[in-house]
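Record format v2
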Amino acid sequence: MTKREAAILAALVLGLTAVFLISLAFGSTSIPLRRVVMALLDSSAGGDSASMVVTTVRLPRSVTAMLAGAALGIAGLQMQTLFRNPLADPFALGISSGASLGVALVVLGSGYGPATAFGTAMGMRGDALITAAAIVGAALVLGLVLAVSSHIANPTTVLILGLMFGYAVSAVVTVLVGASQPERLQQWAQWGFGSFSGVTWQRLRLFGPLTVCGVLIASATTKQLNALLLGENYARSMGLAVRRARVLTMLGASILGAVVTAFCGPISFLGIAVPHLCRGLLGSSDHRVLVPAVVLMGAAVALVAQIVSLLPGSAGVLPLNAVTSLMGAPVVVAVLLRSRRGAFAG
Amino acid sequence: MTPAAASAARVSFDAALRTRDLAVGYRTRKTRRAVLEHVNLAVDSGELVCLLGPNGIGKSTLLRTIAKMQPALWGSVELGGADLRSVSHAELARRLGVVLTERVAVEALTVRQIVGLGRYPHSGWFGGLTDRDRVAVDWAIDAVGARHLAARDFSRLSDGERQRVMIARALAQEPVLLVLDEPTAFLDVPSRVELMGLLRQLTRERPLAVVVSTHDLELALRTADVIWLVMPGGELVTGAPEDVVLSGGIGQAFEGRQIRFHPEERSFRLLTGSGGDAVVHGSGLRAALAAAALEREGYTVVAADAIAPAVSVHAHDTGWRLWTRNGECSGADFASLAEYLRGRRAES
């Protein structure tokens, strides 16, 4: 790691800390930073309402945003490297379509009644049921793609396969949407907006470990990812078990994507944009610096998106998905245009 | 331990590649389709082998099988006496390096980082490089003469420089055998010559065997220690370049309706029809070039004492002078000579 790279990582840590504190201070009512820090440091001082808001509402929301951002960033990086395609993202294998189908079946379909009955029997209600449906849907599509792709040698073909599965599944969702009653569409649209607010402390107990595990697995495979930069043929010639690495990477990235989608809705854009931002910033494709940078950057960008989505204040919130894309697209375009002129030269 | 010391230690075991009754090709669920069969080849350490043959004859398939990138149909490949089937990919990568035709599209990595990837089979879980690894990387960069490129961005190098770096990366694996599949395909002529020269030099300086497939037949015949020539029927002719030329195999493998292989010059010539015998007087470069112009225009250049040639040309310091049965003429450059010859053949 060069000094420059170390400095950039340090700056990212500082930036993340800053937006983290701001995200806790900012909301329907502003809370001074001093009191935010007090509430964080001293859990026994939880008497007043401000600390209550910070610890029970905003802290889980911000932690969720950071975990989701880091997870999507890492998963996007894995997919882009594996497929050597700058357009790949965590949902490239149809994962988010699968999750959408699961949720659509529960929220829109006639399956709502039976599914609710089943969920209630399993002790699940509302959000928990939606999460479970999303995970089941994503897992089914992923299983299908992995099973078929094990017979395919060319990674690009696998990518196209995933896209095709995604389209097919999306078509089914569209049929469901078309056939459903208006009042249920409202709830469906709400899920589609994406949100970090639905994850409570209780649900974080599941969401947290899942995403942290996924990120750790990705961090442990930096060496394999670096070898894959040269393409599968060269990676194999240097001793990488390519098929196994491919399945593990696809599995890891897709599970991260599926978990985030299940808990927060289909958050678009972060997964594709964050790796590009980090490559542009660092001027390097070396995963040993890219992985930590993507984790930090992903968390920070998700927090900023969360803050911006609250900007209308009492007038309500902006859909998170709209914020990530509107905010991120110009940044990525700028990074790409700059890189043409030499930012990638490092 | 320095790489040099490591190399010295390796001499103790057999570095040769050997194939025994090998068949290479493709297998589908039901059938096996052999491209080349009964392949018995051997390479010794310090040898540069060039694999030649017409397009689509199975050169790449053979190299991929030797490098365990695809399984053998029958028979076996042995590296240093060990059957490839019993060697894991990770272990193999410490003994065999591969360079492919394909262009590597990677953004934002320096040459040193690319060569560092060659330490993959030697480094630990996270791929961190030790001092020993860094010594090997520096050595590999020096070995291909790329020290001045070390800090450059790989994606900004020329094709020739990139292949050099990919060779350095393979060398950083510290292999005993280097397999290169048409590494010169995208390169311009000087880069091709340089690359083959580099490979030859590498086999001279260390206990390394190199097998390289190429379409650059004339260059291969000039630089290789051993030629493996795949004939159109699938059989292999092997030996020193001169022995392979003498066997006539190259003509059989490559000659077509329009080209003939000339063993004396180890090069191909276009068949342009016969305008008769020609004699060239004079010496040096100008005489040789005058002969070349005559051959291109369809004359057969014969010895200076030949009887009754159709034309005789004297190449001198300021131009040429030409005699025929009907007269003589002269000119300053080869364009005017060629023009005269074309005009003469058009008349007859």
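Chain B touches chain A at residues 67, 69, 89-94, 96-98, 100, 102, 104-110, 113-114, 117-118, 120-121, 123, 125-128, 153, 155-156, 170, 173 (CB under 8 Å).
Residues 277-347 of chain B form one domain.
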